[in-house]
Amino acid sequence: MSAEATNPEAHPEARPELRRRGRTRLDLRRLGRAALLGPTSRDRLPDAIGHVAEAHRAHHPDADLSLLRRAYLLAETSHRGQMRKSGEPYITHPLAVTLILAELGAETTTLTASLLHDTVEDTEVTLDQVRAEFGDEVCFIVDGVTKVEKIDYGAAAEPETFRKMLVATGNDVRVMSIKLADRLHNMRTLGVMRPEKQARIAKVTRDVLIPLAERLGVQALKTELEDLVFAILHPEEYESTRALIAAHAGERDPLPGIADSVRAVLRDAGIAAEVQVRPRHFVSVHRIARTRGELRGSDFGRILVLVGENADCYAVLGELHTCFTPVVSEFKDFIATPKFNLYQSLHTAVATPEGYVAEVIVRTRQMHRVAEAGVVALGNPYATATPDAAADPDEERVDPTRPGWLSRLLDWQQSAPDPDTFWSVLRAELAQDREITVFRADGGTLGLPAGASCIDAAYAQHGEAAHGCIGARVNGRLASLSSPLSDGDTVQLLLAQDASSGPAAEWLDHARTPAARIAISSWLESHPDRAMSTTSAARAPLSVVGARGGGGNAVADLPDATVRLAGCCTPVPPDAVAGFLVRGGAVTVHRIHCAAVAQMRAVGRTSVAVHWRATADCRVTLLAESFGRPHLLADLTEAIAREGVEVVSATVEPPVEQRVRHTYTLQLPDATGLPALMRAMRDVPGVYDVSRA
User: Fold this and answer.
1) Highest mean predicted confidence (pLDDT) among 39-43, 242-246, 462-466, 649-653
2) Is 395 exposed, middle or buried (0-12, 13-18, 19+ CB in 10 A)?
3) What pLDDT, on the 0 to 100 scale, is given for residue 499?
4) d(CA 665, CA 212)
5) Which residue has the higher pLDDT, 547 or 219?
6) Cβ–Cβ under 8 Å, residues 579 and 629
7) Cβ within 8 Å of residue 225, ≥6 positions away
8) What are the residue numbers of the active site?
9) Are 622 and 693 in contact (CB under 8 A)?
10) Could you tell me which residues come within 8 angstroms of residue 279 by beta carbon, excluding any fewer than 6 positions away?
11) pLDDT score recorded for residue 45
């Protein structure tokens, strides 16, 4: 998508992964000569796309190549006269991008759009012409990868281009497949650019394109992009890693011998399998070296075992762990629990009698295809769509391959109109390299980044309605909103009935997803007074004290003695009670089973008989535990007043992990109303427990 390129022969060291894998290299001079010759006769393909057709037919033997021929002719004629900075005809760029996708197994529609992906941006060809000639799907994909005009957006052109591309990817993942292949070819041929521009492009590739390739499962593109970025941004470390690999090449490699042993074991077990040695790419070697220090021969690659069926994968694993010494800590089952980017494999490591430890990957051939090509290997996700559904290009299409992270990204980008905010939050979102799945109480699921909290789950499930979230139950147990979630948790979110409820500023400390952070920040900015009040309310306890005191309707058999109801157990009629004489001549009254009764007797306090008056009123202390939210104290006080109960005193402790503890001393007109009072208090939104002190 850029003329900022040069001949890849000028920088062969920037393509180590390509050279090691033996991937077909384009002869740009030959392609350039073929392109300049113009169109060929109608009965055969142009020579310039013969290699694309060959790679395409390897994956799709029955593919109709006439569409590719027409797309090439339009691309060649529209780009004719345009040159890359390397001096090659510009048509060599869309050809190279299309070849990358053809080798990954992309279907015909993707390759057609790839050949045309720069025509609308760089030539006089319009989207209407593309739609008329190639249909709505090709037009949609070409439009998705077309940059926005820099003259209209200025410095915001790059983030807005990515925003447009990601929205289009939400409707058709093939848009991002073409963008990744486009960036790979530009990175392969970046040598003629100024060093500072190389670094800028490499940083965007590192922060945005490589994470997207990882999330879409396109490992073949991701690993090569990583090596190319590594060479540009960290040239010294790249050179030392290259020297390390070169030194290893001159030594005896133990992995082929271990692979032979694995083949023999599987052959004896009657398991049909293909065993390969897969060298690590440069960045992988660099990471291993930083983790393990000095590397041994078996650290420079891994053994890949390909089988036919899922059951064969576990049969291979059993044989390996039986015939070799397994390294238990290295075992991972990504077949039973696939990664969020479609990746499936069994990972293990075994030790040989010679003392080498070899990492082994076991997968089916279909898993291998998806592991290498990701969403590209899934073909056309709309092949089964009804004609009516495919007829309207403006209607959003539900992509069956759309992962949860992409849905989250599409949701929050709508709340980030500022390009700078979108750009910075996008990079932060893509930096999350793991995802968890949690189950909702209604049976649905939520995909969240690792480390997400109940706050993130609330906004993922309820959107802006999560402003009124007051707590959660995780796996059936009450939990604060700050509680982190783990893969497989079941979360039930508790929402306040009060529409005016809003989030606390502290929620930002526990929110991990951009959607949650943007929504919370927007609410706090639009409610500065509420934000200040919720923050200050958490600082100091609130205490309200009434005028009444004494022992309520408890009477001691001691003339003129002052009677006090113990605050530790707050007895009420008809509780069985005991009285004890304390300092000052007062009698304190406890419930008979209160722990303080035994202590009083142990220290020799004088026991005094007490009884209840015939009157029905009484005093009681209740503890109400709740999730913090605005107006909670007012709502609780109102619920108490509706029961005709007088508040003697009330204390609200500072929130701890968004939980608040209220202590009320209440004067009831009738002790029989206590159960109804406690039920009314529990019914207040946010209150999860009410008990006697």
Assistant:
1) 242-246
2) exposed
3) 60
4) 59
5) 219
6) no
7) 180, 183, 184, 187, 205, 209, 210, 213
8) 121-122
9) yes
10) 20, 300, 301
11) 60
pLDDT for 31 beyond 70: no
Q: What is the CA radius of gyration of the chain?
A: 35
**CB atoms < 10 A from the CB of 266, how many?**
22
Alpha carbon distance 114, 36 (integer Å): 20
Maximum CA extent, the chain: 122
Q: What are the C-alpha distances in Å from 324 to residues 258, 313, 348, 349, 355?
A: 10, 16, 11, 9, 11
What's the rounded mean pLDDT across residues 360-380? 89
What would the mean pLDDT of 509-533 be, rounded to a whole number? 78
Predicted pLDDT of residue 615:
61
Tokens 């029989």 -> residue = 672
> What's the N-to-C CA distance of the chain in angstroms?
71
Q: What is the pLDDT of residue 546?
A: 40
DSSP, res 503: -
Cβ-contact 522, 464 below 8 angstroms: no
User: Can you tell me the distance from the alpha carbon of 162 to that of 144, in angstroms, rounded to the nearest whole number?
Assistant: 10
Could you tell me if 592 and 610 are in contact, meaning their C-beta atoms sit under 8 angstroms apart? no
Look at the block and give the residue holding tokens 């020799």.
604
Closest to 667 measured CA to CA, from 543, 572, 535, 593: 572
Poorest-pLDDT segment among 15-29, 155-169, 270-284, 372-386 = 15-29
The number of residues in the chain equals 693
Query: At a CB cut-off of 8 Å and minimum separation 6, what does 64 contact?
Result: 108
DSSP, res 330: G
Q: What is the pLDDT of residue 295?
A: 82
Contact between 610 and 587 (Cβ < 8 Å) = yes
pLDDT for res 151? 58
Q: Are 404 and 450 in contact (CB under 8 A)?
A: no
Q: 3-state DSSP call for residue 601?
A: helix
Task: Please state the rounded mean pLDDT for residues 35-45.
Answer: 49
Strand pairing partners for 646? 667
Q: Write out the DSSP string of 533-567.
A: HHHHHTTS-EEEE-S--S-TTEEESSTT--EEE-T
Distance from the Cα of residue 618 to its chain's centroid:
55
Reading the block at residue 489, the tokens are 């948790």
Q: State the DSSP code for 207.
A: I
Quick check: 255 and 301 in contact, CB under 8 A? Answer: yes
Strand partners, 665: 621, 649
Residue 6 has pLDDT above 50, yes or no: no
User: Which amino acid appears at position 549 of this protein?
Assistant: G
Structure tokens, 288 = 């291993």
Instruction: Tell me the residue type at 11.
Output: H
| C-beta neighbour count of 683 within 10 angstroms | 10
Per the prediction, the chain carries an average pLDDT of 80
Contact indicator for 227, 16 with CB cutoff of 8 Å: yes
H, E, C per residue of 406-457 = HHHHHHHHCCCCCHHHHHHHHHHHHCCCCEEEEEECCCCEEEEECCCEHHHH
Find out whether 7 and 28 touch, Cβ atoms under 8 Å: yes
Beta strands, E only, 238-324: 274-279, 301-307
| pLDDT 10s digits, 138-183 | 999 999 998 876 656 667 778 888 888 888 888 888 899 999 999 9
- Is residue 88's pLDDT more than 60? yes
Do the Cβ atoms of 589 and 577 come closer than 8 Å?
Answer: yes
Cα distance between residue 648 and residue 669, in whole Å = 13
67-76: pLDDT as tens digits? 999 999 999 9
Q: Which is nearest to 105 in space by CA: 373, 472, 477?
A: 373
Count Cβ neighbours within 10 Å for each residue of 16-52 and write b for 16 or more, e otherwise: bbbeeeeeeebebeebbebbeeeeeeeeebbebbebb
Q: Highest-confidence range of 21-35, 48-62, 567-581, by mean pLDDT?
A: 48-62
